[in-house]
């Protein structure tokens, strides 16, 4: 009996030891593996691409068959994902002798899953990336996750797609090291600050929108609304929607590090304090509007303007990133009322790297993947197939330009901006006929500020920036929404900004800006 | 006289306190149910209300309109919950039992080893590599079950309970000629029903709420559990409602989408079954949760 018990115990100990050893060897294995993966990558990038395992004899000898995987963020497409993929592959097989495995992930899943995959060195070919949103560009370039796309490669495998993109925009694709790791998905690349005005009131009061060039021109209209429309908020504001002040004599927009006078050939940086002092009249106007009841009383405490707009009684609001055709979107946000954009600022170039395709370092077929990118950005048939599904089954063609999705058809990812150059898309109901031309026009005419791409290195002024931020949070909201009288508050605000170190920030920013200009050869 | 009065006062206060406490717990849930059957229009106009001004089952109609993937999600979730809980309970008990035996020489170092894993772990990337490149569990149901089969915390709770079982029972069983396995399955397991029931409930909640491992390891729509399905639907709604990037036309489709009530309806569909199961465990629950505390 005693014997048996000790035997069982021994067995337990033995098994536990085994488990421990297994755990240790797993770790060792991990290390070995990551090294292996790295050397594998290195050899791949230096030597020419090795023949692929899945290779099989086909009609086109110069291109061995390739299987590609494409990860992208998407809404759930529906039951027919596989059917559409088969259709795509039939076409791709003819074109470039490749098949693609589509791997849509929801927006919440995308980063987590791809980060894990890339860290583990798992092989995939194509992914969607963006400058500041999902799968952030620079961060992953730093990690070495993306393959560099050299000019040679692009010229050889994706020349048509490259031609679509204006050369003056191309520098935006460069990472910090000056190399390019992604291919842009060309779409709207400019933003304009606009007022959003409900169409019913424009019609009713015969407002000539071309007369509205700045916030001041709005006042008579707001008065009309206040006097005649009960229950309507003439000008809706919340914590995320203030800032209709624009000075058209200046070059500067949200996201740009410096602002300079338009006619100033030396591009002298305007200081924050000076700009706030210049806004005195604007703050007075806002306060007058607030007192007159043009602005909703809860503006300084309301978190999201869309909560208010959804009720449909906000007559005028602001949109920071208006784009051609955007009025259609706004209709839903405004409780189903039609709206009109009235631009109050210049259009600024915002970059083409907000959406792009990247090739993974682990890709076994980078050339073919680049060819696929080329097709996605140039081939109208392929693009509309992947965006909308199969004609007759998932959508119907109305005429040369327009399509109409079939409801509950089993394929509707609704993410055209993920797949490729949007200007190849069929128009959807509600979009205006010239939306793509207008977008291209807007892109081409957008003002590329001298300061585009310049950012202030904040290392030496970190604490000042934090202090200033806190001060701004304390005062700005109340001033911008007109909730307080700027007479005593504005001087207090400026004093406190100075005390928080705004001068030092301005000085530092100006110095870096001057250095940047010199380096660029502008000065 | 004054004694009974103060007694009555105390009773009143205690009852009052717990009534309020119960209300705090129950009301949000009742509100959840009510919002899920309120029309979107009245939600936008009036906010959340206990008495809805407009009744509507639209949210449920939308969520249940294409039941295939939802039913599949339920199927996957129920399967991993049942199978996972059973395996997990067995292995937890089998791990906890030896280290609860004082006549097992290495019980202390092994207990420490298990405890140690609570404090330190390898992190997500090594875990991912282990699961996909060594165990090859990508795109299998096992990937949803195996990672949470043995939780050190559960093992320690179980050990705490088993510690309290008097060792004389084991001795006498041995004298009567039973082997270790017989003792474990015939004596220890039945004696620890309260602990097993409690842990079983914890573990099954864990499996029921499982979505993260599915996110990492499952590409195939066949194996998507309920919760990940709901995460996806929610993320789609959020995206369409808030993103300036959403296509104009796709936004049109969702213009009249009852975003707020659909969320609540999904919460009820996802959590409902577990609420039904809970009362059946309750009788063990009280006893089991006191595991480790002083008992007469």
Automatic annotation (TrEMBL), chain A:
Stretches for region Disordered: 31-63
InterPro entries: Bact_solute-bd_prot1, DUF3502
Lineage: Bacteria, Bacillati, Bacillota, Bacilli, Bacillales
Polar residues compositional bias, start-end: 38-50
Keyword Isomerase tagged: no
Signal sequence, start to end: 1-28
Annotated Pfam families: DUF3502
Domain of life assignment: Bacteria
Source organism (scientific name): Paenibacillus swuensis
Keywords assigned by UniProt, alphabetized: Signal
Designated name of the protein: DUF3502 domain-containing protein
Transmembrane region(s): none
TrEMBL record, chain B:
Signal peptide start and end residues: none
Organism for this UniProt entry: Paenibacillus swuensis
Top-level lineage group: Bacteria
UniProt entry keywords in alphabetical sequence: Cell membrane, Membrane, Transmembrane, Transmembrane helix, Transport
Biological processes per GO annotation: transmembrane transport
GO CC terms, sorted: plasma membrane
Record membrane topology: Multi-pass membrane protein
Record's protein name: Sugar ABC transporter permease
Transmembrane segment boundaries: 12-35, 74-98, 110-129, 141-162, 183-203, 262-281
